[in-house]
Amino acid sequence: MQIDIITIFPEYFESPFKIGLLGKALKKGLLKIKIYNLRDFTEDKHKVIDDEPFGGGEGMVFKPEPLYKAITYIKEIDPSAWIIYLSPQGEVLNQKIAERLSKKEHLVLLCGRYEGIDERIRANFIDEEISIGDYVVFGGEVASLVLIETIARLIPGVVGKKDSVEKESFSAGLLKYPCYTRPRDFMGYKVPDILLSGNHAEIEKYRRKQSLEITLRRKPYLFKEIELSEEDKKIIAELLKTQRFYIFLVHYPVFNKNGEKIASAIANFDLHDLSRLARTYGLKGVYIIQPLEDQRKLAEELIDYWLTKKGAQYNPLRKEAIKLIKIFETLDSAILEVESIEGERPILLGTDASPKRKYVKYEEIRNLLWEKPLALVLGTAWGLCDEVLDKCDYFLEPIWGRLDTYNHLSVRSAASIFIDRILGIYSFYKKY
Fold it and tell me: Are residues 357 and 257 part of one domain?
């Protein structure tokens, strides 16, 4: 493979291309790299490659003429050369991109600096833009090194053992399992017994499970692109069962539209829809908080109909969902129920259509899921009273409209959106 680099700092690459496996690959001729100094494509005596942006603003912008001449010069040598601009606006580099690019014969990496390059070059003479992450560095040189190393590892012969590349993180789609070496006991921290057993088949199973768990905990979005075996799915399902999530639907104390504290009525739709939501996403329970005895009795009769009477025979799938519902007189009694099941108090996630309190990111909620039981606290009528919100540990961002701030959703719709934002990333089963 031929890789050309267009840069204003050729000296930046002097050391990286001399050391390690990349240096060896260049010496063996497995990879060829040529560096072009952008200033060599200028015509003025000062070799100016940048200028102030039209319209004003901070910083400088790479001029179009030197860039065009550099790209044209390379294209005349090889019209098939693939021009890549290392840019924060580009697609974030991942293993699939690296694998695709490793199959090309000639790459040209354009390293920007300052405020970037003239838009006319970017829009008309660049084949692809790549970013190494959602952050900003001084220039494209460091990004080009990351891309070159990622691609070089995939070129046959660069890495000694093909197996070591295939088992690296991301090559099989999963993050890599933990590795250990001597001594067996370090400060009381011991190597897992399975790795010392000599049973290679069991060791491979252990490592696969470890990779699945680490990926599930740290980067679950990777599973969208991974082919999972039936055994993988069983392991994942068992791991996900350790997440303990509940819904608390509060009918008191809540506000009416006049801002008065009330107890709202239980809606049949809520029971059916929230229980089906809970069953779909693998929640452990839907707890209804209702202080009015006649309302609790009515709800229990409805539940009993679907669990033990005609409804159970008519729709067994509904029975499977409805059995997740429990009725409680107070919020505190529902909290105590979870505590008795899980051995610790659940973390309460408050919801409010008006952003009165600082809300937490969904990534943080997913991290908590692996450590603690969680309960999503939903209000009926016109929302939860402050005395309920005061008991909550974290608060979810309100669900905003796409075009404006309108967010008057039913509690069933809001619950579905909240649950999917938190747990949807773990949904791997598909019906074919």
Answer: yes
